[in-house]
Design goal:
Elements lengths: L1 E9 L6 H13 L4 E3 L4 E4 L2 H16 L4 E9 L7 H14 L2
Antiparallel strand pairs: 1-3, 1-4, 2-3
Helix pairs in contact: 1-2
Pfam families: Thiamine_BP (PF01910)
Family: Belongs to the UPF0045 family.
Protein name: MTH1187 family thiamine-binding protein
Length: 98
């Protein structure tokens, strides 16, 4: 499964980069395939391991902020691995055909 999620601290002002970095540190330390962009961090693995990482990432932000907002989207597709890379490669292949 692939989970794309964002963790936003609330009540800490406009500059939230240091808070978000705490969540991303947790994801990267997990050893699971992941990718971070301007809006979301995506992580790939089995349900329990991915959700554990998301929970710990949220907790890292929650430890420093009075309130936390989480947005989560999941692609649950048993038997698929390396989806983070393969899905993008498929789109790039179609783009190159034109």
């Amino acid at each position: 499964m692939i989970v794309a999620f964002s963790v936003t601290p609330l009540g800490v002002g406009e500059d939230v980069g240091a808070y978000v970095a705490e969540a991303v540190r947790v994801v990267r330390a997990s050893g699971l395939p992941n990718r971070t962009d301007a809006m979301f961090t995506s992580i790939e693995g089995e349900w329990d391991e991915v959700m554990d990482v998301v929970k710990r990432a949220v907790a890292a932000v929650e430890a420093r902020a009075p309130r936390v907002s989480v947005v989560l989207k999941a692609d649950i597709r048993p038997g698929v691995t390396d989806g983070l890379t393969r899905k993008v490669e498929t789109v790039e292949r179609h783009l190159a055909e034109q």
